[in-house]
Design goal:
single chain; 345 residues; alpha+beta; 7-stranded mixed sheet; binds adenosine-5'-[phenylalaninyl-phosphate]
Length: 345
């Protein structure tokens, strides 16, 4: 055996003994640098191959390579063992108990008001109504004047209003100003739309009235539209929304923008008609106002009242949801109580 080979073998035996004592990634890397790195002992010794004779070089070279591969394999094995031990130590230090039950996530759901709005839209969609988007911030002119309530008209008192600091700009008190926008957009075409959205009134908040609530306006304009069309549409809606057989009451009423006007009540599900605080002890819950579009409003929308007629209605989806789900206080809708949202949503 050549001297070089003897030297390499002795070095390998010593290196293997040292490797067995390496217990961390750092010490195994230091070992690598000491023996197999660019300036390591093994690498430097292998450079001595060049001094050997032509006959010796291939034999010693092959044996030297085998020694080097043996050391590389030993290092790999040692590093795998160190990594495994380090991972196990880290896991037990973190103290993760994989047998613990997981924490469940709360799953969101559609808000009861939105769910009701979707249901209403679907029912009217089947009757050929399209959804028309109208602004929540209106002007005094569209919210009142063009709906046949000029400045000083006593009917303005029916809607206590939030005014902004910009003169004439208000939060809409109802979805009816959307009628003017829709008519001006569609005229002279016939119209069959619903206008869902939020309304704002400076009201005393009670079990049945909120300051901010939703409405769904309905507007139909065409030739020969009559009160029977209004009645048929609303009866069909109530039957689909609440199921056949609910009692429905058309009460004569007054709105400046419809003539004649009605309010529509459904028998109160909460008390079965015997009277409770939600229905104000009448047995009925008002869900909407409606009527034939006043000729003045048709004209303000651009339609000739001698050629066109129409009907309109405005309903409160929260009141409808209260009836459907037996909710006895409208304030639950906007107080973010998850128990309520989970039960009714
Ligand atoms: C109006 O707002 C009219 N614009 C409705 C209308 C439209 C009539 C088109 C004729 C033609 P009223 O103020 O009654 O009317 O409100 C209509 C519906 O909105 C009520 O029946 C009720 O369901 C709902 N509503 C009214 N005020 C509140 C409130 N404070 N909180 C919750 N829902 C309300």
């Amino acid at each position: 055996m050549s001297d070089l080979l003897k030297q390499l073998e002795a070095m390998a035996v010593q290196a293997e003994a040292e490797l067995a004592t390496a217990t961390t990634s750092d010490s195994s890397e230091a070992w690598y640098r000491q023996y197999l790195g660019r300036t390591g002992e093994m690498t430097t010794a292998l450079r001595g191959l060049g001094q050997l004779s032509r006959e010796e070089r291939p034999v010693v070279g092959k044996a030297a390579n085998q020694i080097k591969q043996r050391l590389e394999a030993a290092l790999q094995e040692r590093q795998d063992a160190i990594r495994q031990a380090e991972m196990e130590a880290a896991l037990s230090a973190e103290g993760v108990d994989v047998t613990l039950p997981g924490r469940s996530q709360n799953v969101g759901r559609i808000h009861p008001s939105n769910a009701t709005l979707r249901e209403i839209s679907q029912i009217f969609g089947q009757m050929g109504f399209q959804v028309y988007d109208a602004p929540e911030v209106e002007t005094d002119e569209t919210n009142f004047t063009l709906l046949n309530m000029p400045d000083g008209h006593p009917a303005r008192d029916m809607w206590d209003t939030f005014y902004t600091t910009t003169p004439g700009v208000i939060l809409r008190t109802h979805t009816s100003p959307g009628q003017i926008h829709a008519m001006r957009d569609y005229c002279p075409q016939p119209i069959r739309v619903i206008l869902p959205g939020k309304c704002y009134r400076h009201e005393d908040v009670t079990a049945r009235s909120e300051m901010m609530f939703h409405q769904v306006e309905g507007l139909v304009v065409g030739r020969n539209i009559t009160f029977s069309d209004l009645k048929g549409t609303l009866v069909n809606f109530v039957n689909q929304m609440f199921g056949e057989g609910r009692s429905l009451r058309f009460r004569k009423s007054y709105f400046p923008f419809t003539e004649p006007s009605v309010e529509v009540d459904v028998d109160c599900v909460l008390c079965g008609g015997s009277g409770c605080r939600v229905c104000k002890y009448t047995g009925w819950l008002e869900i909407l106002g409606a009527g034939m579009v006043n000729p003045v409003v048709l004209q303000n929308g651009g339609y000739d009242p001698s050629q066109f007629s129409g009907f309109a209605f405005g309903m409160g989806p929260e009141r409808i949801a209260m009836l459907k789900h037996g909710v006895d206080d409208i304030r639950y809708f906007f107080t973010n109580d998850v128990r309520f949202l989970e039960r009714v949503g």
